[in-house]
Amino acid sequence: YQIIHTLFLSLIPTFCIAVNVYQETMDCGFVSSFSAGRATASTTTAKTSTSSQPTYIPSSRRSSLRMMQTGASNFEGARIGPPPDLPSLMLANRIVYIGMPLVPAVTELIIAELLYLQYSDPDKPIYMYINSTGTSNPDGSNAGFETEAFAIADTMSYIKPEVRTIAIGSAFGTAGMLLAAGAKGHRAALPNATVMIHQPRSTARGQAADIAIKAKEVLHNRKVILEIIAERSGQPLEKVMADAARTQYLSAYEAKEYGIIDKVLESPKDLPTPAPTFLSALQ
What we know:
The protein has 283 residues and is of the alpha/beta class. It is 51% helix and 14% strand. It contains ten helices and nine strands. Strands 3, 4, 5, 6, 7, 8 and 9 form a seven-stranded mixed sheet that branches. α5 (104-120) packs parallel to α6, α6 (146-158) runs parallel beside α7 and α7 runs parallel beside α8 (208-233). The chain starts with a helix and ends in a 19-residue tail after the last strand.
């Protein structure tokens, strides 16, 4: 009897802890969400077998089910859990965002998104937001090959939907070329965005013949970049080549005068319409 009594007393603290944890879980909504999900699934299955009418799920329960699917919970009215998949939400609203230097991984993703949106709905425009230093790192060193930017520019011309470009922050080098390559009349920048045009750089090493081959390729890439900027901006090629002989920074308003963009977005009424709807998915 004493052994059983001692064992029972030792289990009381553990039992109290388990009760407290269960109560906190109920308060946070984990168990309620799970129960709501099971109850909803059972009710839906039963009504489907007996009636063709859909089952109404209250908005609070739909919110709980949505949070269960994303691994989130609700505590005192605040959403707790991993952040939503913002790139997917933006893609669903036909928004492509370039926020890094144009390295192969970024190029692969951007082209895949453009092709997906092309076959998803070829009649709706695509909005490309650019905040990139192009194929260079912020310190000026090379981050990728100019062909990465050429691949994106060619894809923008290849697909049927028009690509409307918007510069936010910076559009340097080949990123500025992509900004200018957007649909004419729909190329824009925010007031404090900066556009920079310059010549591509090379750090070729090795034998003289190899350096000469690389230099020839760099000159060809420079010609292609400046030809695209000249064609899209309406400036003579000679002027663009002279301006790009040294690094040149342009404000949003200077880029508009140059012809790289068509307008500066100064107020909410200038933003693309219709507005993205992905914010409603976060509620």
